[in-house]
Specification:
49% of the residues lie in helices and 0% in strands. By secondary structure, it is mostly helical. It has one domain. The mean pLDDT is 90.
Length: 78
């Protein structure tokens, strides 16, 4: 990550991603869904109020941030 604007966007994207965490998708599927939504609607969808200072990020950076989340609990797919 290069800038605090990118860090802020990733943090809000992690919260936004919870809408895709229904227990049936992989991390890759969740990240892809978030990135698809951002491509369709822009970075402003990450916040209920327009922020204006988000910076774009890659899916790999979002996945890495989720992976580092200490409170993350996952289960193995059967």
């Amino acid at each position: 990550m290069v800038d605090t604007s990118q860090t802020r966007a990733i943090g809000d994207a992690m919260y936004y991603a919870t809408k895709y965490m229904d227990g049936g998708g992989t991390l890759r599927e969740i990240v892809d869904a978030v990135l698809k939504s951002i491509l369709e609607k822009g970075l402003d969808l990450l916040s209920p109020m327009p922020v204006g200072d988000y910076a774009a990020f890659r899916g790999l950076e979002l996945a890495a941030a989720v992976n580092r989340l200490r409170t993350l609990s996952v289960r193995k797919k059967a």
